[in-house]
Amino acid sequence: MGVDIRHNKDRKEPKGQDIYLRLLVKLYRFLARRTNSTFNQVVLKRLFMSQNTTAVVVGTVTDDVRILEVPKLKAPGTPHSHTKPYVCSKGRKFKRVRGRRASRGYKN
């Protein structure tokens, strides 16, 4: 018995009508398609996220009335920063991979 993937929960384009966001999506869609880099694919996926969960800022923020307000973000990896990196899942169930636990697909 397999685990079904919910395809109605993965976005293919951003919901917002921000023109700068649309341009970034167009750029990173091209980069993700033409290069073999997973970084570009991750950036593209995070540009699709809703406004309060967008975890990436690309380029400089200009003074334009059409652009969204971006809150001040701390970044992991900067000197003297104790910010933790972006991790989707934490906890005992997530540390166990498939085959090690019954609720994670199967258990032998």
Automatic annotation (TrEMBL):
One of its GO terms (molecular function) is structural constituent of ribosome. Signal peptide: none annotated. The keyword Ribosomal protein applies. GO terms for biological process: translation. Coiled coil: none annotated. Component of the large ribosomal subunit. This is Large ribosomal subunit protein uL15/eL18 domain-containing protein. It comes from Cricetulus griseus.
